[in-house]
Amino acid sequence: MSQKMPTMYQLIEAKKNGHILEANHIKWIIEEYTKKNIPDYQMSALLMAISLKGMTTAETAALTDAMLYSGRVLKFNDKTVVDKHSTGGIGDKASFVLAPIAACLGVKVPMIAGRGLGHTGGTVDKIEVLKGFKTNLSLDEFSQQLTDKGIVLIGQTPEIAPADRLIYALRDVTATIDCIPLITASIMSKKLAEGAEGIAFDIKYGTGAFMRDRKNAKLLATSLLQTAKRFKRKAVALVTDMNQPLGLKVGHSLELIESVDTLKGAGPKDLTDLSIELAAHMAVMAGKFKTLELARKKARSTIEDGSALNKLADLIEWQGGKREDILNTAHLPVAPEVTIVKAPKTAFIKNFQNDQVGHQLIELGGGRKTKEDQLDLTVGFTFVAKIGDQVKKDEPILAIHHHAHQRAIAQKMAQTFITEIITFSKAKVKAPKLITDVMSL
Protein backbone atom coordinates (compact mmCIF):
# COMPACT_ATOMS: atom_id res chain seq x y z
CA MET A 1 0.00 0.00 0.00
CA SER A 2 1.12 3.58 -0.58
CA GLN A 3 2.34 5.87 2.19
CA LYS A 4 -0.92 7.81 1.96
CA MET A 5 -3.49 6.48 4.45
CA PRO A 6 -5.86 4.16 2.58
CA THR A 7 -9.61 4.54 2.90
CA MET A 8 -11.61 2.10 5.00
CA TYR A 9 -12.98 0.67 1.74
CA GLN A 10 -9.43 -0.04 0.53
CA LEU A 11 -8.47 -1.66 3.84
CA ILE A 12 -11.54 -3.91 3.75
CA GLU A 13 -10.72 -4.89 0.18
CA ALA A 14 -7.07 -5.55 1.07
CA LYS A 15 -8.00 -7.91 3.91
CA LYS A 16 -10.72 -9.53 1.78
CA ASN A 17 -7.97 -10.39 -0.73
CA GLY A 18 -5.72 -11.82 2.00
CA HIS A 19 -3.24 -8.94 2.32
CA ILE A 20 -1.47 -8.07 5.58
CA LEU A 21 -2.60 -4.82 7.20
CA GLU A 22 0.12 -2.51 8.50
CA ALA A 23 0.20 -1.70 12.22
CA ASN A 24 -0.42 2.03 11.65
CA HIS A 25 -3.44 1.19 9.46
CA ILE A 26 -4.89 -1.08 12.15
CA LYS A 27 -4.32 1.65 14.75
CA TRP A 28 -6.10 4.17 12.50
CA ILE A 29 -9.09 1.84 12.02
CA ILE A 30 -9.52 1.33 15.77
CA GLU A 31 -9.11 5.02 16.57
CA GLU A 32 -11.56 6.14 13.89
CA TYR A 33 -14.14 3.46 14.73
CA THR A 34 -13.98 4.37 18.43
CA LYS A 35 -14.61 8.01 17.45
CA LYS A 36 -17.62 6.77 15.38
CA ASN A 37 -16.03 8.03 12.15
CA ILE A 38 -16.30 4.53 10.66
CA PRO A 39 -19.85 3.12 10.38
CA ASP A 40 -20.85 -0.25 11.82
CA TYR A 41 -21.46 -1.72 8.35
CA GLN A 42 -17.85 -1.11 7.29
CA MET A 43 -16.43 -2.46 10.55
CA SER A 44 -18.70 -5.50 10.18
CA ALA A 45 -17.31 -6.07 6.69
CA LEU A 46 -13.75 -5.87 7.98
CA LEU A 47 -14.50 -8.26 10.84
CA MET A 48 -15.90 -10.77 8.35
CA ALA A 49 -12.84 -10.37 6.11
CA ILE A 50 -10.57 -10.98 9.12
CA SER A 51 -12.64 -14.02 10.11
CA LEU A 52 -12.29 -15.49 6.62
CA LYS A 53 -8.68 -14.53 5.86
CA GLY A 54 -7.12 -14.47 9.34
CA MET A 55 -4.35 -12.29 10.74
CA THR A 56 -0.63 -12.79 11.22
CA THR A 57 0.91 -12.74 14.71
CA ALA A 58 2.11 -9.18 14.01
CA GLU A 59 -1.37 -8.06 12.90
CA THR A 60 -2.94 -9.65 15.99
CA ALA A 61 -0.39 -7.85 18.19
CA ALA A 62 -1.15 -4.53 16.47
CA LEU A 63 -4.89 -5.05 16.89
CA THR A 64 -4.49 -5.96 20.57
CA ASP A 65 -2.31 -2.89 21.22
CA ALA A 66 -4.70 -0.56 19.40
CA MET A 67 -7.70 -1.87 21.34
CA LEU A 68 -5.83 -1.87 24.67
CA TYR A 69 -4.72 1.74 24.33
CA SER A 70 -8.09 2.93 23.00
CA GLY A 71 -8.94 3.65 26.63
CA ARG A 72 -7.56 3.82 30.13
CA VAL A 73 -5.00 1.26 31.34
CA LEU A 74 -4.85 0.46 35.06
CA LYS A 75 -1.64 -0.44 36.83
CA PHE A 76 -1.60 -1.83 40.38
CA ASN A 77 2.02 -3.02 40.60
CA ASP A 78 0.74 -5.89 42.72
CA LYS A 79 1.59 -9.48 41.75
CA THR A 80 -1.45 -10.75 43.68
CA VAL A 81 -3.80 -9.14 41.12
CA VAL A 82 -4.73 -12.18 39.04
CA ASP A 83 -7.81 -12.74 36.91
CA LYS A 84 -9.46 -15.60 35.05
CA HIS A 85 -10.97 -15.56 31.62
CA SER A 86 -13.21 -18.16 30.03
CA THR A 87 -13.92 -18.23 26.32
CA GLY A 88 -17.51 -19.08 27.22
CA GLY A 89 -19.82 -22.01 26.92
CA ILE A 90 -23.17 -23.42 27.89
CA GLY A 91 -23.76 -23.27 31.64
CA ASP A 92 -20.38 -21.66 32.32
CA LYS A 93 -20.88 -19.95 35.65
CA ALA A 94 -17.47 -20.83 37.12
CA SER A 95 -16.52 -17.18 37.79
CA PHE A 96 -19.08 -16.98 40.60
CA VAL A 97 -17.46 -19.99 42.27
CA LEU A 98 -13.75 -19.56 41.63
CA ALA A 99 -13.50 -15.79 42.23
CA PRO A 100 -14.58 -15.89 45.90
CA ILE A 101 -12.44 -19.00 46.43
CA ALA A 102 -9.40 -17.24 44.95
CA ALA A 103 -10.10 -14.13 47.01
CA CYS A 104 -10.13 -16.28 50.16
CA LEU A 105 -6.69 -17.57 49.11
CA GLY A 106 -5.29 -14.04 49.05
CA VAL A 107 -5.69 -13.33 45.35
CA LYS A 108 -7.00 -9.92 44.32
CA VAL A 109 -9.54 -10.69 41.60
CA PRO A 110 -10.37 -7.83 39.17
CA MET A 111 -13.36 -9.00 37.14
CA ILE A 112 -14.38 -6.84 34.20
CA ALA A 113 -16.90 -9.17 32.67
CA GLY A 114 -18.87 -9.30 29.44
CA ARG A 115 -22.43 -9.97 28.39
CA GLY A 116 -23.66 -12.95 26.43
CA LEU A 117 -21.99 -13.62 23.09
CA GLY A 118 -23.71 -15.75 20.48
CA HIS A 119 -25.20 -18.88 22.06
CA THR A 120 -23.22 -18.46 25.31
CA GLY A 121 -24.26 -16.59 28.44
CA GLY A 122 -22.49 -13.61 29.97
CA THR A 123 -21.33 -13.11 33.56
CA VAL A 124 -22.74 -9.57 33.71
CA ASP A 125 -26.15 -10.73 32.47
CA LYS A 126 -26.23 -13.45 35.13
CA ILE A 127 -25.25 -11.24 38.04
CA GLU A 128 -28.02 -8.78 37.12
CA VAL A 129 -30.48 -11.34 38.48
CA LEU A 130 -29.57 -9.77 41.85
CA LYS A 131 -31.62 -6.63 42.48
CA GLY A 132 -29.53 -3.62 43.36
CA PHE A 133 -26.19 -5.11 42.32
CA LYS A 134 -24.17 -2.42 40.55
CA THR A 135 -22.01 -3.52 37.63
CA ASN A 136 -21.41 0.08 36.55
CA LEU A 137 -18.85 1.19 39.13
CA SER A 138 -16.42 3.84 37.95
CA LEU A 139 -12.85 2.73 37.35
CA ASP A 140 -11.77 4.65 40.44
CA GLU A 141 -14.37 2.76 42.50
CA PHE A 142 -13.29 -0.48 40.83
CA SER A 143 -9.64 0.14 41.73
CA GLN A 144 -10.45 1.15 45.30
CA GLN A 145 -12.61 -1.91 45.96
CA LEU A 146 -9.99 -4.23 44.49
CA THR A 147 -7.27 -2.67 46.65
CA ASP A 148 -9.37 -2.61 49.85
CA LYS A 149 -11.57 -5.70 49.51
CA GLY A 150 -9.68 -7.98 47.11
CA ILE A 151 -12.57 -8.76 44.75
CA VAL A 152 -14.74 -6.71 42.39
CA LEU A 153 -17.07 -7.41 39.45
CA ILE A 154 -18.12 -4.84 36.88
CA GLY A 155 -19.28 -4.74 33.29
CA GLN A 156 -17.08 -3.38 30.56
CA THR A 157 -16.84 0.39 30.99
CA PRO A 158 -16.47 3.07 28.32
CA GLU A 159 -13.01 3.74 29.76
CA ILE A 160 -11.57 0.21 29.48
CA ALA A 161 -10.85 -0.91 25.91
CA PRO A 162 -13.79 1.07 24.47
CA ALA A 163 -12.97 -0.21 20.99
CA ASP A 164 -13.52 -3.77 22.17
CA ARG A 165 -16.82 -2.83 23.76
CA LEU A 166 -18.09 -1.62 20.39
CA ILE A 167 -16.59 -4.45 18.34
CA TYR A 168 -17.76 -7.11 20.84
CA ALA A 169 -21.39 -6.09 20.28
CA LEU A 170 -20.93 -6.29 16.50
CA ARG A 171 -19.25 -9.71 16.60
CA ASP A 172 -22.16 -11.06 18.63
CA VAL A 173 -24.61 -10.51 15.77
CA THR A 174 -22.45 -10.84 12.65
CA ALA A 175 -21.18 -14.45 12.97
CA THR A 176 -17.59 -13.26 13.54
CA ILE A 177 -17.11 -14.69 17.03
CA ASP A 178 -14.94 -17.76 16.42
CA CYS A 179 -11.87 -16.01 15.01
CA ILE A 180 -8.63 -16.49 16.97
CA PRO A 181 -7.08 -13.04 16.25
CA LEU A 182 -10.34 -11.26 17.14
CA ILE A 183 -10.79 -13.35 20.30
CA THR A 184 -7.17 -12.75 21.33
CA ALA A 185 -7.38 -8.98 20.86
CA SER A 186 -10.74 -8.80 22.64
CA ILE A 187 -9.69 -10.82 25.68
CA MET A 188 -6.21 -9.40 26.11
CA SER A 189 -7.13 -5.75 25.58
CA LYS A 190 -9.53 -6.04 28.55
CA LYS A 191 -7.35 -8.18 30.80
CA LEU A 192 -4.25 -6.04 30.29
CA ALA A 193 -6.23 -2.81 30.75
CA GLU A 194 -7.69 -3.94 34.09
CA GLY A 195 -4.20 -4.31 35.56
CA ALA A 196 -3.99 -8.10 35.99
CA GLU A 197 -0.45 -9.36 36.60
CA GLY A 198 -1.49 -12.95 35.96
CA ILE A 199 -4.29 -14.58 33.99
CA ALA A 200 -5.76 -18.08 34.16
CA PHE A 201 -7.46 -18.90 30.86
CA ASP A 202 -10.25 -21.44 30.50
CA ILE A 203 -10.22 -22.26 26.77
CA LYS A 204 -13.27 -24.30 25.89
CA TYR A 205 -13.80 -26.52 22.87
CA GLY A 206 -16.65 -28.65 21.57
CA THR A 207 -20.19 -28.24 20.33
CA GLY A 208 -21.00 -25.63 22.99
CA ALA A 209 -17.87 -23.51 22.47
CA PHE A 210 -16.60 -21.13 19.80
CA MET A 211 -13.58 -23.37 19.27
CA ARG A 212 -15.15 -26.56 17.94
CA ASP A 213 -12.13 -28.84 18.39
CA ARG A 214 -9.22 -29.32 20.76
CA LYS A 215 -6.64 -28.38 18.10
CA ASN A 216 -8.12 -24.91 17.56
CA ALA A 217 -8.57 -24.43 21.30
CA LYS A 218 -4.86 -25.07 21.77
CA LEU A 219 -4.05 -22.62 18.95
CA LEU A 220 -6.12 -19.96 20.74
CA ALA A 221 -4.44 -20.82 24.05
CA THR A 222 -1.03 -20.37 22.42
CA SER A 223 -2.07 -17.02 20.94
CA LEU A 224 -3.27 -15.77 24.34
CA LEU A 225 -0.19 -17.07 26.16
CA GLN A 226 2.13 -15.44 23.61
CA THR A 227 0.34 -12.11 24.07
CA ALA A 228 0.59 -12.41 27.87
CA LYS A 229 4.31 -13.17 27.54
CA ARG A 230 4.82 -10.14 25.27
CA PHE A 231 3.40 -7.98 28.06
CA LYS A 232 5.43 -9.84 30.73
CA ARG A 233 2.35 -11.27 32.47
CA LYS A 234 2.10 -14.69 34.08
CA ALA A 235 -0.43 -16.94 32.40
CA VAL A 236 -1.72 -20.50 32.27
CA ALA A 237 -4.35 -21.96 29.96
CA LEU A 238 -6.63 -24.87 30.80
CA VAL A 239 -8.20 -26.45 27.72
CA THR A 240 -11.59 -27.82 28.74
CA ASP A 241 -14.37 -29.88 27.18
CA MET A 242 -17.61 -28.06 26.32
CA ASN A 243 -19.44 -30.84 24.48
CA GLN A 244 -22.10 -30.73 27.18
CA PRO A 245 -23.27 -28.05 29.64
CA LEU A 246 -20.98 -27.21 32.54
CA GLY A 247 -22.86 -28.17 35.67
CA LEU A 248 -26.53 -29.09 35.54
CA LYS A 249 -28.26 -25.73 35.10
CA VAL A 250 -28.44 -23.38 32.10
CA GLY A 251 -30.10 -19.97 32.36
CA HIS A 252 -29.14 -16.84 34.28
CA SER A 253 -30.95 -17.18 37.61
CA LEU A 254 -30.62 -20.97 37.58
CA GLU A 255 -26.86 -20.73 37.08
CA LEU A 256 -26.46 -18.28 39.93
CA ILE A 257 -28.41 -20.66 42.17
CA GLU A 258 -26.15 -23.54 41.12
CA SER A 259 -23.05 -21.45 41.82
CA VAL A 260 -24.25 -20.85 45.38
CA ASP A 261 -25.05 -24.56 45.77
CA THR A 262 -21.48 -25.29 44.69
CA LEU A 263 -20.05 -22.89 47.26
CA LYS A 264 -22.19 -24.70 49.85
CA GLY A 265 -20.49 -27.96 48.87
CA ALA A 266 -23.56 -29.33 47.06
CA GLY A 267 -22.66 -28.46 43.48
CA PRO A 268 -21.98 -30.76 40.52
CA LYS A 269 -18.53 -32.34 40.37
CA ASP A 270 -17.45 -30.81 37.05
CA LEU A 271 -18.20 -27.23 38.10
CA THR A 272 -16.61 -27.78 41.52
CA ASP A 273 -13.44 -29.37 40.15
CA LEU A 274 -12.92 -26.78 37.40
CA SER A 275 -13.47 -23.86 39.77
CA ILE A 276 -11.01 -25.25 42.32
CA GLU A 277 -8.40 -25.94 39.65
CA LEU A 278 -8.59 -22.43 38.19
CA ALA A 279 -8.55 -20.80 41.63
CA ALA A 280 -5.52 -22.90 42.60
CA HIS A 281 -3.60 -21.81 39.49
CA MET A 282 -4.50 -18.18 40.25
CA ALA A 283 -3.24 -18.52 43.83
CA VAL A 284 0.08 -20.02 42.67
CA MET A 285 0.55 -17.24 40.09
CA ALA A 286 -0.15 -14.71 42.85
CA GLY A 287 2.67 -16.23 44.88
CA LYS A 288 0.37 -17.38 47.69
CA PHE A 289 1.28 -21.08 47.40
CA LYS A 290 4.36 -22.88 46.17
CA THR A 291 2.49 -25.87 44.78
CA LEU A 292 -0.83 -26.50 43.08
CA GLU A 293 -1.50 -29.36 45.48
CA LEU A 294 -1.40 -27.05 48.50
CA ALA A 295 -3.51 -24.44 46.71
CA ARG A 296 -6.14 -27.03 45.74
CA LYS A 297 -6.36 -28.31 49.30
CA LYS A 298 -6.85 -24.81 50.69
CA ALA A 299 -9.37 -23.99 47.93
CA ARG A 300 -11.51 -26.98 48.94
CA SER A 301 -11.35 -25.90 52.57
CA THR A 302 -12.86 -22.49 51.69
CA ILE A 303 -15.96 -24.36 50.48
CA GLU A 304 -16.02 -26.68 53.49
CA ASP A 305 -15.75 -23.88 56.07
CA GLY A 306 -18.18 -21.54 54.26
CA SER A 307 -15.66 -18.72 53.79
CA ALA A 308 -15.96 -18.70 49.99
CA LEU A 309 -19.75 -18.42 50.17
CA ASN A 310 -19.43 -15.56 52.65
CA LYS A 311 -16.94 -13.86 50.33
CA LEU A 312 -19.46 -13.99 47.48
CA ALA A 313 -22.15 -12.60 49.79
CA ASP A 314 -19.73 -9.83 50.80
CA LEU A 315 -19.10 -8.97 47.14
CA ILE A 316 -22.83 -8.75 46.48
CA GLU A 317 -23.33 -6.52 49.51
CA TRP A 318 -20.36 -4.27 48.69
CA GLN A 319 -21.85 -3.55 45.27
CA GLY A 320 -25.41 -2.78 46.33
CA GLY A 321 -27.09 -6.19 46.36
CA LYS A 322 -28.55 -8.15 49.28
CA ARG A 323 -26.41 -10.85 50.84
CA GLU A 324 -29.60 -12.74 51.76
CA ASP A 325 -30.17 -13.37 48.03
CA ILE A 326 -26.95 -15.40 48.04
CA LEU A 327 -27.35 -17.06 51.42
CA ASN A 328 -30.95 -18.03 50.58
CA THR A 329 -31.37 -18.47 46.82
CA ALA A 330 -35.12 -19.11 47.21
CA HIS A 331 -35.27 -15.31 46.83
CA LEU A 332 -34.04 -15.53 43.24
CA PRO A 333 -36.60 -15.52 40.42
CA VAL A 334 -37.18 -18.67 38.35
CA ALA A 335 -39.85 -19.06 35.64
CA PRO A 336 -42.93 -20.62 37.29
CA GLU A 337 -43.71 -23.51 34.94
CA VAL A 338 -41.72 -26.69 34.27
CA THR A 339 -41.94 -29.07 31.34
CA ILE A 340 -40.19 -32.40 31.92
CA VAL A 341 -38.25 -34.00 29.08
CA LYS A 342 -38.28 -37.80 29.37
CA ALA A 343 -35.92 -40.40 27.93
CA PRO A 344 -37.40 -41.97 24.78
CA LYS A 345 -35.73 -45.31 25.54
CA THR A 346 -33.39 -47.03 27.98
CA ALA A 347 -29.90 -46.06 26.86
CA PHE A 348 -26.72 -44.18 27.66
CA ILE A 349 -26.39 -40.49 26.81
CA LYS A 350 -23.76 -40.32 24.07
CA ASN A 351 -23.47 -36.61 23.32
CA PHE A 352 -25.12 -33.20 23.17
CA GLN A 353 -25.36 -30.80 20.27
CA ASN A 354 -24.47 -28.30 22.93
CA ASP A 355 -24.71 -25.07 20.96
CA GLN A 356 -28.35 -25.98 20.35
CA VAL A 357 -28.93 -25.92 24.11
CA GLY A 358 -27.84 -22.28 23.95
CA HIS A 359 -30.06 -21.61 20.96
CA GLN A 360 -33.06 -23.13 22.77
CA LEU A 361 -32.38 -20.75 25.67
CA ILE A 362 -32.44 -17.87 23.17
CA GLU A 363 -35.83 -19.12 21.93
CA LEU A 364 -37.15 -18.90 25.51
CA GLY A 365 -35.89 -15.31 25.72
CA GLY A 366 -32.77 -16.11 27.76
CA GLY A 367 -30.37 -14.98 25.02
CA ARG A 368 -30.11 -12.22 22.42
CA LYS A 369 -31.01 -12.37 18.73
CA THR A 370 -30.06 -8.71 18.28
CA LYS A 371 -27.81 -6.54 20.44
CA GLU A 372 -30.87 -4.52 21.61
CA ASP A 373 -32.77 -7.53 22.98
CA GLN A 374 -33.78 -7.58 26.65
CA LEU A 375 -33.16 -10.89 28.41
CA ASP A 376 -35.53 -13.02 30.45
CA LEU A 377 -33.29 -13.99 33.36
CA THR A 378 -35.74 -16.53 34.82
CA VAL A 379 -35.96 -19.17 32.06
CA GLY A 380 -33.65 -22.11 31.42
CA PHE A 381 -32.94 -25.81 31.84
CA THR A 382 -32.05 -28.19 34.65
CA PHE A 383 -30.35 -31.39 33.48
CA VAL A 384 -30.67 -34.66 35.36
CA ALA A 385 -28.37 -36.75 33.16
CA LYS A 386 -25.21 -36.05 31.16
CA ILE A 387 -22.79 -37.89 28.86
CA GLY A 388 -22.03 -41.38 30.15
CA ASP A 389 -25.13 -41.61 32.34
CA GLN A 390 -27.65 -44.36 31.77
CA VAL A 391 -31.28 -43.30 31.53
CA LYS A 392 -34.34 -45.51 31.58
CA LYS A 393 -37.32 -45.11 29.27
CA ASP A 394 -39.69 -42.34 30.43
CA GLU A 395 -37.34 -41.19 33.19
CA PRO A 396 -36.71 -37.41 33.34
CA ILE A 397 -33.48 -36.27 31.69
CA LEU A 398 -34.05 -32.51 31.97
CA ALA A 399 -36.58 -29.85 32.94
CA ILE A 400 -37.49 -26.77 30.92
CA HIS A 401 -38.27 -23.70 33.06
CA HIS A 402 -40.66 -21.36 31.25
CA HIS A 403 -43.73 -19.14 31.52
CA ALA A 404 -47.39 -20.06 30.99
CA HIS A 405 -47.55 -18.41 27.57
CA GLN A 406 -44.59 -20.58 26.45
CA ARG A 407 -46.22 -23.98 27.04
CA ALA A 408 -46.51 -24.83 23.34
CA ILE A 409 -42.92 -23.71 22.74
CA ALA A 410 -41.71 -25.84 25.66
CA GLN A 411 -43.57 -28.93 24.38
CA LYS A 412 -42.00 -28.55 20.95
CA MET A 413 -38.63 -27.90 22.57
CA ALA A 414 -38.91 -31.11 24.62
CA GLN A 415 -39.21 -33.07 21.39
CA THR A 416 -36.25 -31.21 19.89
CA PHE A 417 -34.08 -32.19 22.85
CA ILE A 418 -34.63 -35.93 22.38
CA THR A 419 -34.55 -35.97 18.57
CA GLU A 420 -31.94 -33.35 17.64
CA ILE A 421 -29.89 -32.26 20.66
CA ILE A 422 -29.22 -35.36 22.79
CA THR A 423 -27.89 -38.55 21.17
CA PHE A 424 -28.42 -41.92 22.83
CA SER A 425 -26.43 -45.16 22.66
CA LYS A 426 -27.22 -48.77 23.57
CA ALA A 427 -23.56 -49.35 24.36
CA LYS A 428 -21.97 -47.93 27.49
CA VAL A 429 -20.46 -44.47 26.98
CA LYS A 430 -17.41 -43.10 28.79
CA ALA A 431 -17.82 -39.69 30.39
CA PRO A 432 -15.48 -37.11 28.78
CA LYS A 433 -12.43 -35.75 30.54
CA LEU A 434 -13.14 -32.15 31.60
CA ILE A 435 -9.62 -30.66 31.56
CA THR A 436 -7.67 -32.05 28.60
CA ASP A 437 -4.59 -29.79 28.61
CA VAL A 438 -2.76 -27.40 30.90
CA MET A 439 -0.56 -25.02 28.90
CA SER A 440 1.96 -22.33 29.76
CA LEU A 441 4.97 -20.68 28.08
**CATH fold naming of the largest domain:** Pyrimidine Nucleoside Phosphorylase, Chain A, domain 2
Give the topology string: H per helix, E per strand.
Answer: HHHHEHEHHEHHEHEEHHHHHEEHEEEHEE
> Could you say which overall geometry the principal axes of the C-alpha atoms support?
globular
User: CATH superfamily membership of the largest domain, which one?
Assistant: Nucleoside phosphorylase/phosphoribosyltransferase catalytic domain
Write down the overall mean pLDDT. 95
The number of domains: 3
- Helix fraction, binned, reads 40-55%
Any chance you could write out the topology, listing elements then pairs?
Elements: H1 8-16, H2 23-34, H3 40-53, H4 57-68, E1 82-86, H5 95-104, E2 109-113, H6 123-127, H7 139-149, E3 151-155, H8 162-173, H9 180-193, E4 198-205, H10 214-230, E5 234-241, E6 249-250, H11 252-263, H12 269-285, H13 292-304, H14 307-318, H15 323-327, E7 337-342, E8 347-352, H16 354-364, E9 380-383, E10 390-391, E11 396-402, H17 407-421, E12 422-425, E13 435-439
Give a short summary of the structure:
By secondary structure, the protein is an alpha/beta fold.
